């Protein structure tokens, strides 16, 4: 099996098995890509938990926004983190996710975003990692 086939299989499993997705960097503005992706995920039955320190305590897409991943209640069932941040911020987000989300199984970074060192740390903890992809583009093939 080649690398692309393995990645496609991983994406398919993520699309079918994930249920609660924390979106780091989710904007309340409807014209932002993060909002469009989160709205799509909700329309497909996923629960989306917004994470954005500038909007903590507000409601985005009918969900309470948290300032950090650590602020999300541990029993929320977050099994995937979708990162809408610059590549330089990914390492810290991944480390916080690994430390604070007990049900976590997937780290996902959006188009143009990657941190191979953080990906290796997450994979070493048993996480599936998808980088430089968008679930709004990838998931429809599997749902």
TrEMBL record:
Q: Which domain of life is it from?
A: Bacteria
Ranges that cross the membrane: none
Name the Gene3D superfamilies for this protein: NAD(P)-binding Rossmann-like Domain
**One Pfam family this sequence matches:** CoA_binding_2
Spell out the InterPro entries in the cross-references. CoA-bd (IPR003781), NAD(P)-bd_dom_sf (IPR036291)
Outline the extent of the CoA-binding domain. 15-113
- What PANTHER family is this protein classified in? COA-BINDING DOMAIN-CONTAINING PROTEIN, CYTOPLASMIC PROTEIN-RELATED
Question: What's the protein here called?
Answer: CoA-binding protein
Native species of this protein?
Paracoccus albicereus
